[in-house]
Amino acid sequence: MACPRHMLLLLSSAIDVPHHEASGGGASKGKGAILTVPARQEKGGMRRGMAIIDLVLRIGAVVAALAAAATMGTSDQNLPFFTQFFQFEASYDDMPSFQFFLIAMSLVAGYLVLSVPFSIVSIVRPHASGIRLLLLILDVVALTLATSAAGAATAIVYLAHNGNSSSNWLAICNQFGDFCQTVSGAVVASFVTVVTFMFLILLSAVALRKH
Amino acid sequence: MACPRHMLLLLSSAIDVPHHEASGGGASKGKGAILTVPARQEKGGMRRGMAIIDLVLRIGAVVAALAAAATMGTSDQNLPFFTQFFQFEASYDDMPSFQFFLIAMSLVAGYLVLSVPFSIVSIVRPHASGIRLLLLILDVVALTLATSAAGAATAIVYLAHNGNSSSNWLAICNQFGDFCQTVSGAVVASFVTVVTFMFLILLSAVALRKH
């Protein structure tokens, strides 16, 4: 063969190198696949676990918000008598704050039910950060709504229990004990919703940071 | 030459390819450096801009929270007369909800002042996501505190303005008009704080996602 030896060497090396590179690349790819897939799986698994906790907390918040709204909505009490100063029926309709409470907690419960599918999507695709961000922002809005309703209802319930001597507002819970008990239960359920929302936002923020 | 043409072609391509790769790699590296440094600067600049907006909003929230607390704290009104049913002095001390409002807004204002240095650090180092996450979580806690105080004070102010015929609670703003005006102003300032907090949390969440 008249082909010079160094050309052949070059040729063999030229053939070898891609082969080596190819096999090496394949090996390193395989090794990389072995090394990186568990890391990605571990990270994805942790974020999937956080998404599952998010779903569980969200369902708990749905239950708490529905309980608060339903308890407030069914807080009628009829008395067998009435005096000059007090009606014989107490209902959430009598207080604008309780009406706001019912509307706000119903809205929050509806939002929470609608957000469950998005939470499930973020379990299936743990690396989609847009859904996380959307849920976080809407959660903050719902948290504000639920907290303001809870605060307003708490102020009125406190007034109904204790009255206020400075402004001459008498306590009405002496007459309407069952009504006050029911409304207090609704307020407690709304605060459970608020605390659950804070944990939901904490989870979303941590998941966004680990992205 | 007895060397087959396809061997030479292979050889030339084998020689060419690394050379091309080397120069191409260098060129693409150089180009990549030209392309990525402005991208990083642009991204850092955008996040620095968001951090600056965060600082400005935070200072505005400090002003609003301090205004709410100070207005509520100075809402005394003395009347030149008193009747059988009403005291001749109205103050935030008379209502537990207003006391809670004052304490909560003072706490929020204190937290906001303490959080300004962290906001400045996140301007200097826009890529530190830990500070962002810390500020977001503490902002959510402060938002909840401010919102509950604002809701409770709003419920009482509404009652003071309008009264409630069902529970026989009379409106006291006929007697204490200045007191009611002052307290209403404090409530408005607290809602400004709440809205500012929501924008702060939105900014932090978007900055965390872009990390």
Automatic annotation (TrEMBL), chains A, B:
Transmembrane parts of this sequence: 50-72, 98-121, 133-160, 186-208
Compartment(s): Cell membrane
Domain of life: Eukaryota
Membrane topology summary: Multi-pass membrane protein
Keywords assigned by UniProt, alphabetized: Cell membrane, Cell wall biogenesis/degradation, Membrane, Transmembrane, Transmembrane helix
Record-annotated Casparian strip membrane protein domain positions: 48-195
Family statement drawn from the similarity comment of this UniProt entry: Belongs to the Casparian strip membrane proteins (CASP) family.
Entry function: Regulates membrane-cell wall junctions and localized cell wall deposition. Required for establishment of the Casparian strip membrane domain (CSD) and the subsequent formation of Casparian strips, a cell wall modification of the root endodermis that determines an apoplastic barrier between the intraorganismal apoplasm and the extraorganismal apoplasm and prevents lateral diffusion.
Subunit structure: Homodimer and heterodimers.
Protein name in the entry: CASP-like protein
Underlying gene: LOC103341878
